[in-house]
Amino acid sequence: MPPLTDPTEVRGGDFSMDAYTVRPRQTRDGYNLESERLSHGRLWYRNQSDAIGFAKWNSRVNGGRIEVLDEKNEIIQTEEFAAGNFAY
Question: What is the CA radius of gyration of the chain?
Answer without folding.
Answer: 16
